[in-house]
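Two quick folds needed for the group meeting slides. Do the first one here.
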Amino acid sequence: MAKTFFEELNNESATGVAYKNLNLKKSILGYFANVSDATIADLAKELNISVPKTTTLLNDLIQDGIVQDFGKIESKSGRKPNSFGLLPESAFFIGVDVNQRFINIALSDLQKNLLEVSEKIPYKLENNKESLETLCGIIITFINELSIPKDKILGIGINLSGRVNYATGYSYSFFHFSEEPLSKIIESKVGIKVFLENDSRSMAFGEFSSGIVTNEKDVLFLNIDYGIGLGILINGQLYYGKSGYSGEFGHIPIFDNEILCQCGKKGCLETEASGWALARMAKQKMLEGSSSILFEKMGANEEILMEDVINAANNDDVLAIELIAKIGENIGRGIALLINIFNPELVILGGSLAETGDYIRLPIKSAINKFSLSLVNSDTQLKISALGKRAGIIGACLLVRKRLLSLS
């Protein structure tokens, strides 16, 4: 009995004709997903393969339940041809966005539609086996509660902060206590193929593919959260760097201070321009006796979170707004450096701190104008993410889709 497309997809030893046919089928699916439905003649012409070969491949995909025959379409002359396209519900992808204090997880179909979303699931990200087991448990629970067959879920994309090598499946910032790739460890527990990605890069891909980006080819995406990450789009393609670790923007040694960064070094941008820095500054202001709604019900030994300061700012608290403006000015200095180097068409602000809108955008814009070359920054737009909190799960789903089926 011939293998289905999905069985062929998971057969890493495929060679010869089988391998060639698999790639041709991916090309057909890619055309449907990225361009439009099409006739056999149109597909054969676009993909430069014969009509009989196209017909055979289409019939295989129809039999596997991935492609649908939509029937006859209008034609100017001759016989009316049939139109073919994707069945969105034939395959699904899961995106998992792991944050410091919660997890967002979603299911998408072949046509990029989010079908099930579970947000703000309580979770504490720590580099230990218990935290990893909890993460796997959350994913398994989500899968078990879905109404679709598990074998239709082709892959799971998991976003983690820090150093992640998507090609090898290793994470070097979290859960790096085994010689086996983290992707394989999680895969063995959940029973579905797993892909790891840096959270900022995944958010960037979501924004590039389904967000605010239209025709821009050179774009920078800033993930401004507890840390600061960067996703880079150059000539329409995600940029990874030699070892896959590009975008460690938060660890540029831009300040001359004695503040120890999360990375273990001093003077990093994150020490003065991140969620960690914002929480630290707020705590210092409280100890100095400053007035704020932040401190009204808080003891001297209680922890102040980035989210607390954001909520206070969104409730017009003067001190919180001033602190976010200070963070924005420092971030703007770093972005000015990036603009001078990359000369991008667009810079996108994403992550939790971007949700404060003009409270952070305007100080950033002011600092960019102050510290970057006017001739360079005059062509650079600065925008807030269109996807917001869902950029990560959307990007995770779309990256799995792209890596498995070669669909952009």
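Then this one, please, same format:
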Amino acid sequence: MTKKFRAAIVGLGFGAEFIPIYQRHPNAEMFAICQRNKESLDKIGSAFGIERRYTEYADLLKDPDVDFVHINTPIPDHAAMSIAALEAGKHVACTVPMATSVEDCKRIVDLCAKTGLRYMMMETVVFSREFLFVKELYQKGELGKLQFLQASHQQDMDGWPGYWPGLPPMYYATHCVGPMLGLPRKDAEYVSCFGSGTIREEMIGIYNSPFAVETAHIKLRNSDLSARIIRSLFDTARQYRESIDVYGTKKAFEWPLIEGEQAVIHTAKKPEHEIAARVEVPDYAHLLPAGIRPFTQKGVYDLEGNEHLSFTQGGGHGGSHPHLVHEFLSALVEGREPWPNAKQSANWTCVGILAHESAMAGGERRDLPSWSFSE
């Protein structure tokens, strides 16, 4: 018989998009959902046929039938909810970032070591079709020796509610950091970051952070590589972009400059006008169980005929959602660590936290904690 793990999704905004993926995965039972708003909870639960529903997270954690929680709540809640779940004996999948402090990252790492439970930060970019394409090129040797990596995540967050106004750019940096460390499978050793520009006065005092843009350099441990990341959230004109550029001795990959355009491959030792060529990044649905392959496609799925519960799948996150689910469940089935595991997730998350500290200190070097090293 196929081994199944009972999933509980916590947070049903973005989190609701994962419900049909778990329902169609051969190793999952979409078992429970949790949201404070009971009307919305019941609406979604009825639409998807999920009977076990919780408005209180503490009550969900007491349920002995839940094997793992998939946390999709606001950033400030990630660490406390992950820690509570691990202490309750549940495996944890959590949307990014892992935490907002180095200390909380360490608590999660220590709990995983103590309990043997699995933790995975559900970083979308390292399972996007673009990253999987670059990864395939690298593993086949087509890029040659890696020489430099860079990533950017720029987004206009004006109008977003709650904790977003004034958020330091590097506090939400894993979409950049993850692919830069994930491709060569290296840890960050230290980081230096500079702030640039200023956001509006009314936002500065919220986090005591003035910068419109933060730009960091990361030194990769046990490697001759460094990586650059660029982040902006407010008062900087740029179309939404999560991008990765990878430069090797044989080929380089550059993310499209404008959304909807094709990526570019540069091939060394060709005539100058032939070096750059646009390329269509393929879909990687073939890596997944048949039942969840459709969720890699861009577009909107009408789920169970309920037009009011239509969710965009894949378009905003490069088709990564089913790959994230499959990696986590495969790790549980195989009794192995997921990728990224707790230490890797902590290393990626701490880069952003320490990068902002560096920017506030005029670019001073900040070393990553040794307990976050996976090598």
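Slide caption for protein two: The longest strand covers residues 146-154.
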